[in-house]
Amino acid sequence: MISQIQVESWMLIHACKYRYHGVIQGILRRHHDNIEHLDVPNIYLSIPMIYNIIMTDDVLRYPVVVNHLDFIDVEVPHAVPFKLYSKLSIGLKMKWAMMLLKENHNDTLMLLNKYFPRKGSQYEHATPKELSSLHSVQKNFRKFFLPLLAHQNQREAYFQNEFEEEYGKHFQEALQQLAVLFVEKLTSHLPQTTIEKLLTEGTEQYQPLMEDSTDLSMEMLLDTLHGKEALEEGDLLDLLTMISPLNTQDRVQVDKVWLLSSEEREKSSSKSLFSSHSVDQLTELECSNSHEQNMGGPKTWHNSNQNQTPDRTNEDSGDTTSVSYNKTQLHESFGDFNDKRHLFHCDQKDSQSSQIMEKDIEKNRDSDNAESLKSSGDSVSILRNKQQRTKTRKDPEDDR
Description:
Number of helices: 19
Distance between the termini: 117 Å
Strand content: under 5%
Low-confidence stretches: 270-286, 296-353, 372-376, 390-400
Largest sheet: none
Order of helices and strands: HHHHHHHHHHHHHHHHHHH
Helix content: over 70%
Structural class: mainly alpha
């Protein structure tokens, strides 16, 4: 049965291998920096640790990196060439020893004997030539370091005049280059992560484990992997947000292509609401309307827009921020927004058309009133004639 903890372990392994520091920090925050219950080999955790500390020049944590380098050299001695390992390790030890010397730390001599032993460090898998070169470096450093530790005046003069040139910017850049090579060599020998296997081999092998699983984390992972050849840091961050949101409001923002009503479309900032088919229809309608204007034809489409103008005005006054943002999205989708102003609001031509229509409406109203008065007069005269005929018919009856 696959659980959320298992899926997060897979994510952390993949993030460590490819140094996705945002994902690593996100998982650490969710577990309060305690990831012992996650099933992640220590060698994967060493990769981002080594890389991040050296690239940020966090000298105070160099001893941590040295410990990780020694661990990797013991666990997978042939993954990284000994020469590369020893250069990076000895460089970090030198920089840390010099920092203690500069601060006149009490443990400086003890550290010197630990990192640069008089007899030289011993490694079973190193060749005699490699060991001889390493011992020579350690011996020379002790000869250089001990007089500075013993004589304060020499120490102060050195840090004032020579330290920056020998252990400053250029030395740090060399350490960073060695760190990059070390991490690349190490990751190239690591096996595929579970996420990589799912991407290359498919999900069929995990189907039996999913049948009895009620946890939705695996479903979210499979949805994230679907249709992809590789998983980027942003994909893992979205997956982590879906699986384990830190806050109630944490949700992945998606294109709400299923929104159909005009009100929901105004609220949504998704470009997917304006598909290529919709763009083609609007463009065709615009061209047709422009042709009718040039030929002096009817402006029925503009008239319908005028009828809708009050509603658009009310919407603009109610939520100007949303409308402004939607116009920005439309500008990105359609190209030159200024050439298509009439698609979304009335321009100068629309104002002129509105004035013309108002005059036409007033003329029609006057004509209708005149016809109404004329018909009223006719009705009165007809009624009088009818009354006279009726009276004439009643007169003989009165005579009788």
